[in-house]
Design brief:
A: 5-stranded mixed beta sheet, globular, B: Rossmann fold, Acetoin dehydrogenase (chain B), PDH_E1_Alpha_Subunit (chain B)
């Protein structure tokens, strides 16, 4: 294989599922549209053909019941992967998720396990609007017994998904729709069997700690490059697993820089950012040089019209602006109005490849 | 006569267990919400007569009868009510979360209707893995008002899964009568048939009727004909949750209560056995034997150790 061959986030998700289905003959995969011609944005294409329609199947429009059926099959000895094209529809399944999947191993005193993974895709832009664009990662992370993984980079996503599927605890796996076309070289792909890092350090730096997850990791890395041009050496970390006990590298980074900005890909209040800042404050209070900051989505639902969403999602420029202002440094003219969109493409698509509708 | 005697023994055992719990509940040592099965024993016993230990059962909040009829450990049940280490979940779940995997009783859960999909999922596993066993899900008529029931029945019918739905219709959801919950013309059996379950209804207080109907349905399920439902019309004697009679509250018509109490499943079967020639002494001896087993279970539960709270963080995640 040539080192300059490239692969996408969606292809990597697809490959992880193929490998898991092959490695565990008792694995089932189902979800609305999983075996339709579009194959969940290409992430499930070929699965049913390879492993048969008994193990890989499209399902009735019954999110709660089918989640319970997945849990029941998992308890009986199957390994189960469910996929939802939008997280918002999965809200119908909160009873099964919270009262059964999350509690089962605990409330039956360790006698049974729930090897269940649920892929949830977050929409953004092109008018996804109030009920097709919610990242409720902090809800899931709040429930004891659930693991929450929020991948952001193509090199690690296959290993992250494979590890989630093979985990004997229920795992919520949250994919941002705008990540699916992200490319990287195949030579950079992490081996599937490698245990994924809960926190990934994407760039080291001495002056400022920027923590992000999901799509905001990409914006943070662009911001870090701009900050470097402005003489600020930022460290960029990703909390890929939403579990405070695993966030040691974050605490170490803050101990070094004394400054923290958390970029959240969900609403700002009661968010993962809030938890990260709490955890950091409890553990590193003496090392903080200034109050930690957060930057997330505003606390109102995402409107639909393109005219209303221009300022809804923080960008690399808004991250840069937030850091510069907290350091009381002068802003270059190019980002003084960070909320303005400077790209030539419309602000509501991730790239030229995206032509809607979802 | 022999199978009737066996049914009687199983029903009387459940009755006496529940009465013993009720008698001691006020001592305040069983500190968890407890839903007694008194009056509804025939459904559990009649259904279990067609099941093997390999078949897997799920139930709801009112699960003691289903658990015991499937072969669940009596000692582990009573210890669980006392919150002891020797309880079937070591004090984690209480009366509403019972399990005995060695008996094929997978679990009962507390949220109305939410164990129905689990049993259907169990049946999916059994079908895909080609296992020679079936699944059973017990629930009340209130659960047929939940979406989870429709969603589960639909998928079971779609995939022809090996699962028996057992609906115990005791006419009340806590204090709410059927009349405020389902249209008067509603037939749960007609509804289930329309979804694609092979459904029939029986007098749930007549264990012979339940057993005969279940045997027929289970035969079809094992034969690969797809899922079935049996609706057992029955009545609970005591309050929804707790040890007491509560008809002083007046939520059930007096003549209705009198009608059903006169048709108590245990008394009906006892009379039938006597009519068939069983001796009163024989039945009393049975009662005596059950009494000692129950006394022993309570004694064991009371002297058992409490679980250690130092272990409270164990089993949040699979190890």
């Amino acid at each position: 294989m040539q080192s300059n061959q490239t692969t996408t986030f969606a292809e990597q998700i697809n490959q992880a599922q193929h490998q898991a289905m092959q490695d565990d003959p008792a694995m089932l995969a189902f979800g609305l549209g999983i075996s339709d011609p579009k194959g969940i944005f290409g992430t499930t294409t070929g699965l049913a053909e390879s492993f048969g329609h008994e193990r890989v199947f499209d399902m009735p429009t019954a999110e709660n019941g089918m989640t319970g059926i997945g849990i029941g099959a998992a308890l009986a000895g199957s390994r189960v992967l469910m996929t939802h094209q939008r997280l918002d529809f999965f809200l119908l399944a909160m009873d099964q998720l919270v009262n059964n999947a999350a509690k089962w191993h605990y409330m039956f005193n360790g006698q049974m396990k729930v090897p269940l993974t649920i892929r949830l895709i977050i929409g953004r832009g092109w008018g996804q609007g109030p009920t097709h664009a919610q990242n409720l990662q902090s809800w899931f992370a709040h429930i004891p017994g659930l693991k929450v993984i929020t991948p952001s980079k193509t090199d690690a996503v296959a290993a992250q998904l494979y590890s989630a599927i093979m985990d004997d605890s229920p795992v919520i796996f949250i994919e941002h729709r705008w990540l699916h076309q992200q490319q990287c070289e195949t030579s950079q792909i992490k081996p599937l069997t490698l245990r994924p890092e809960p926190v990934r350090v994407h760039k080291t730096g001495a002056d400022y700690t920027i923590v992000a997850n999901s799509y905001m990791v990409l914006e943070s890395l662009i911001a870090a490059r701009k900050l470097a041009e402005l003489g600020i050496d930022a460290e960029v970390l990703e909390t890929a697993e939403l579990e405070p006990a695993c966030w040691q590298p974050v605490y170490q980074s803050v101990a070094k820089t004394g400054r923290l900005l958390v970029c959240d890909s969900a609403h700002t209040s009661f968010s993962v950012a809030a938890e990260i800042i709490s955890s950091v404050t409890e553990r590193c209070f003496g090392q903080l040089k200034q109050a930690p900051l957060r930057l997330g989505l505003p606390d109102y639902p995402e409107p639909t019209s393109i005219a209303l969403t221009k300022h809804f999602y923080p960008s690399a420029d808004s991250i840069t602006k937030k850091v510069m202002m907290s350091l009381q440094r002068e802003l270059p003219a190019s980002i003084q109005d960070a909320d303005e969109h400077h790209s030539t493409r419309p602000h509501d698509v991730p790239g030229e490849w995206f032509k809607g509708p979802f | 006569m022999n199978s009737l005697l066996e049914h009687y023994q199983n029903m009387l055992r459940i009755r006496r267990v529940e009465e013993a719990i009720a008698a001691r509940y006020s001592e305040q040592q069983m500190r968890c919400p407890t839903h007694l099965s008194i009056g509804q024993e025939a459904a559990a016993v009649g259904v279990s007569a067609s099941l093997t230990v390999k078949d897997k059962a799920y139930s709801s909040h009112r699960a003691h009868a289903h658990y015991l009829a499937k072969g669940g450990s009596l000692d582990a049940l009573i210890a669980e009510l006392y919150g002891k280490q020797t309880g079937c979940t070591g004090g984690r779940g209480g009366s509403m979360h019972l399990t005995d995997l060695s008996a094929g009783f997978v679990a009962s859960t507390a949220i109305v209707g939410n164990s129905i999909p689990l049993a259907v999922g169990n049946a999916l596993h059994q079908q895909v893995q080609k296992l020679d066993e079936i699944s059973v899900t017990y629930f009340g008529e209130g659960a047929t008002e939940e979406g989870a029931f429709y969603e589960s029945a639909n998928f079971a019918a779609l995939r022809k899964l090996p699962v028996l739905f057992v609906c115990e219709n005791n006419r009340y959801s806590v204090y709410s009568p059927l009349s405020v919950r389902q249209p008067e013309s509603r037939s749960i059996v007609a509804l289930a048939n329309a979804i694609g379950l092979n459904a029939i209804e029986v007098d749930g207080n007549d264990v012979e009727q339940v057993a005969a109907a279940t045997a027929e349905l289970v035969k079809g399920i094992r034969n690969g004909d797809g899922p079935a439902l049996i609706e057992c019309h029955t009545y609970r004697h005591r309050e929804h949750c707790g040890p007491n009679f509560d008809d002083d509250l007046g939520y059930r018509p007096e003549d209705e209560v009198a009608h059903w109490l006169a048709r108590d499943p245990v008394t009906l079967l006892q009379q039938k056995l006597l009519d068939l020639g069983a001796s009163a002494q024989q039945l009393e001896a049975l009662d005596g034997k059950i009494g000692s087993e129950i006394a022993n279970a309570f004694e064991l539960a009371q002297v058992a150790d409490f679980p250690n709270p130092d272990d409270n963080e164990r089993f949040v995640y699979a190890e």
